[in-house]
Amino acid sequence: MLGQSYTADSGPPPPPQRTPPELFIDSNILVLILAGMIYGGFVAFRRMKAKSILD
User: Fold this and answer.
1) What's the confidence (pLDDT) of residue 42?
2) Which one of 5, 6, 20, 33 is most buried, counting C-beta atoms within 10 A?
3) Dihedral angle over CA of 34, 36, 37, 40, nearest 10
4) 32 and 25 in contact (C-beta within 8 Å)?
5) Running DSSP on this structure, what letter comes out for residue 8?
6) Which phi and psi angles does 18 have, rounded to 5°?
7) For the whole prediction, is pTM greater than 0.85?
């Protein structure tokens, strides 16, 4: 009893704080959204142009 330390009262040490690695998509989500909007506009324009040629 006399040989025990008081560190046992504090419990185990906390686990190390590890953050997950940042993915490429996480940092460039706005670029991907912008690219999707540009591509969507291109597809819509192409369909509109093809429809007017058929009429």
Assistant:
1) 97
2) 33
3) 160
4) yes
5) G
6) -110, 125
7) no
**Gap between the Cα atoms of 29 and 45, Å rounded:** 24
Residue 48, token pair as written in the block: 């509109």
Amino acid sitting at position 11: G
pLDDT per residue as tens, the chain (55 positions): 556 555 555 778 888 888 777 777 777 899 999 999 999 999 999 999 888 877 6
CB proximity list for 25: less than 8 A, separation 6 or greater? 32
pLDDT for position 40: 97
